[in-house]
Automatic annotation (TrEMBL):
GO terms for cellular component: cytosol. InterPro entries: HAD-like_sf, HAD-SF_hydro_IIB, HAD_sf. This is Cof subfamily protein (Haloacid dehalogenase superfamily)/HAD superfamily hydrolase (TIGR01484 family). It comes from Longicatena caecimuris. One of its GO terms (molecular function) is phosphatase activity. It comes from the Bacteria. NCBIfam families: HAD-SF-IIB (TIGR01484). PANTHER family: PHOSPHATASE YKRA-RELATED, PHOSPHOSERINE PHOSPHATASE. SUPFAM superfamilies: HAD-like (SSF56784). PROSITE patterns: COF_2. Gene3D superfamilies: 3.30.1240.10, HAD superfamily/HAD-like (3.40.50.1000).
Length: 261
């Protein structure tokens, strides 16, 4: 299949957390990709506002953005073209369980807040992902797109099992994300590919964590970083070097998506 678009996960793929930067070689590579006619976009678990806090959306004239691991999809002007918010019943149950078990629930996106002040576990996650600390308040029945919770490593999250239409994902040792079962990165990408009027699977995808699984599986070519989750690597068409090396640029060069300039 001829590749028409390239998608990059952010944390641990496009943005390297060891050096706390996007490598210069990566920036050169995405500029060449766009100049060579490919659509270029980020696809992340971060809501758009969290990606802006990291500064990555401002780095480049992206052709689109898939945020919240597929919850929200944006065009080249960062206007929303698709969004799948939590239902009121799902929010009510998540926040009620958070209160019952004294767990901090964090809303990302347009409505950013957390239900408890930072503790050691939430601080670790905020520091890891370079996120701004939001205000502390209760949910005011706004439509929400991204919810996370924080606790100590190895915490048993069983209390959130059984919420209809919700699954719990584990992006880090001290954090879980609540995801609608109808949502994943591949489904978000499908909306953007349709918007671009491109074949559904004619894309190359780079990722490193388990919320990239469907994207890696459904991409025309799915590539996993060397620092990625070992289980995810089993599903990759190719595993490359880690995010702290110019692995993205090297792969794109090797497969002639860009030139050695």
């Amino acid at each position: 299949m001829e590749i028409k678009a390239v998608f990059f996960d952010i944390d641990g793929t496009f943005f390297d957390h060891h050096s706390n930067q996007v490598l210069p070689e990566t920036m050169d590579a995405i500029r060449q990709l766009k100049a060579n006619g490919y659509k270029v976009a980020l696809c992340s678990g971060r809501a758009k506002e969290m990606a802006e806090q990291l500064g990555v959306l401002q780095l480049f004239p992206w052709d689109g953005y898939v945020g919240g691991a597929g919850v929200s999809v944006y065009d080249e002007q960062m206007n929303i073209i698709f969004e799948d918010t939590f239902t009121a019943a799902q929010c009510e149950r998540i926040f009620a369980l958070g209160k019952e078990y004294d767990i901090c629930i964090n809303s990302h996106g347009k409505y950013e807040f957390m239900t408890k002040p930072l503790n050691a576990y939430s601080k670790a996650a905020f520091d890891q992902f370079h996120c701004q600390v939001p205000i502390v308040r209760e949910w005011d029945h706004e439509p929400l797109v991204a919810l996370s919770a924080y606790e100590k490593p190895g915490f048993d999250w069983h209390m959130f099992d059984g919420i209809e239409g919700i699954e719990v994902q584990h992006p880090s040792l001290t954090c879980v994300d609540f995801m609608k079962t109808s949502v994943n990165k591949a489904r978000g990408i499908a909306h953007l590919m349709k918007y671009w009027q491109l074949p559904a699977h004619a894309y190359l995808a780079f990722g490193d964590s388990m919320n990239d699984l469907q994207m890696i599986q459904e991409a025309g070519i799915g590539v996993v970083m060397g620092n990625g989750h070992e289980e995810l690597k089993k599903h990759a068409d190719e595993v490359i070097g880690p995010s702290w090396e110019p692995s993205l640029r090297d792969y794109l060069l090797m497969h002639h998506y860009i030139d050695d300039k």
